[in-house]
Amino acid sequence: MTMPAATDSAAEILQRNITALNNRDLETYLSNQHPDVTITLPGGAQVHGRDQVRASTQVMFAAFPDGKLQFGEQVLADDAAATEVVFTGTHTGPLATPAGEVPPTGRAVRTTTVSMLRFRDGMILTERVIGDELELARQLGLSTPNA
């Protein structure tokens, strides 16, 4: 497990994050999150602290066990970044949502989100994920194309 350093660049922090997620290395992923981390998800739901981040991440791992992330365009600064994130995966496990559990659909999805991040002490302090929830619902067959 690579421990964050206060001098790590935005690119290093982001790469450590995506590598840990793609490897399902939850402990390394969590060590890359500041203890006071806040992640705002599409739709406005927020998770605070490493325990809530762990629970939220485990939900995605369970729903999309083959899920993979890759970066698109990025803008990097010393203490902040904006990055496109492309997610691909197959919905083969239950997906817990605020509206209830979505049973596995077996459908493959490909979504693109944008994350706006702030860093402190070589870790992610805040992340705001901007994405199209309706597009994901359409790909899962939960919404009609014209809805």
From TrEMBL:
Pfam families: SnoaL (PF07366). This is Ester cyclase. Transmembrane segments: none annotated. Coiled coil: none annotated. It comes from the Bacteria. It comes from Kribbella pratensis. InterPro entries: Cyclase_SnoaL-like (IPR009959), NTF2-like_dom_sf (IPR032710). The lineage of its organism: Bacteria, Bacillati, Actinomycetota, Actinomycetes, Propionibacteriales.
